[in-house]
Amino acid sequence: MKPLNKVVAAFAFALVTAGSAIPSRAGQCSTTKGAGSYAFTLSGTLIIPTIGPVPIAAVGRADLKADGTVSGTEARNVGGQYADETFKGTFSINADCTGTTTINFYEQGQLVRISVLSTIQDDDNNEIRMVQESLTLPNGEVLPAILTVDARRIDRNEDCNQDR
Q1: pLDDT tens figures, 9-63
Q2: Which of 88, 108, 103, 109 is nearest to 147 (CA)?
Q3: pLDDT one-digit tens code per residue, 116-133
């Protein structure tokens, strides 16, 4: 066997062997397994048509229930303007650990925006990473947003599946 053929054969063997040693992640995540309370940080930029790019940052707590509902509180700062907000919405987590969250945000009981986020569960369902898909104002105007969120589980809800 020529030296190049030996290298190719060894590489092919290594790929096949390594591929069979990787455990399957299918079924590792679900909406029920993701239920719990999470602390989160948000950072990014909003593009406001009349102003331009505006920085945004936030911290908060989100409570995810096994029935796919989410609620919580957020302290946020947009371009130097601080506000305390509450939110509620829905989420879903697929078996491959990807998901979607849709949240309505309120200030003093008034709807201020609707956010849709793409998510991925990490660290045995203890972390969630998110990126903003869309941000819609109550009047239907869509604002371009470049936002990421990192969340870490701080406790499990009573209705959470404890078999992990």
Answers
A1: 444 444 443 443 333 355 689 999 999 999 999 999 999 999 999 999 999 999 9
A2: 103
A3: 999 999 988 899 999 999
Say how far apart CA 142 and CA 121 lie, in whole Å. 27
| Rounded distance between C-alpha atoms, residue 134 and residue 141, angstroms | 11
Architecture of domain 31-155: Beta Barrel (2.40)
Owner of token pair 């995810």 = 64
For the chain, the structural domain boundaries read 31-155
Q: Which of 42, 88, 40, 77 has the alpha carbon at shortest distance from 61?
A: 40
